[in-house]
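Sequence in, structure out.
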Amino acid sequence: MVINFHKVNFISRKLIKKIFTVAMIVTENYKSDSQIDVSFVSEEEIKKLNNQHRGVDKVTDVLSFPLLNISYPQKLEDYKEEAEPDGILRLGDVVICKQKAYAQAKEYGHSKQREIAFLALHGLLHLLGYDHIEKNDEMIMNSTCEKILSSLNIKRGKNV
């Protein structure tokens, strides 16, 4: 898996790489050569993106922009034909508002890195077709997220 980072510090890069690697294994998508872009943006930038793409004129913590129309439980291997000539399957973008993440970490009583880990994973799961609109889908997404974070000993209220 290739992860392109934009305005992401070294510590967060290392953490996100680890989380994404485990997530691809847990979701059984590790066989695919894939690419994801992860960006940290300001409150102003994420508010603008949220308004442009979702019609919601407010700051949010994370946005995902999938390039594939995947629906859980589909796997990336079902999308081999969508791969670029170089064999890479481009999944899309995860955009995180660092200021919002840090404020939420303080509010929830855990580390900034734990919140970044959660938001990055949440964004990746959306790229892999997970959603939380329906209650059953939300339960699946939340349990998958918890399984991945717990396997890395990343828990609420605990520093990473």
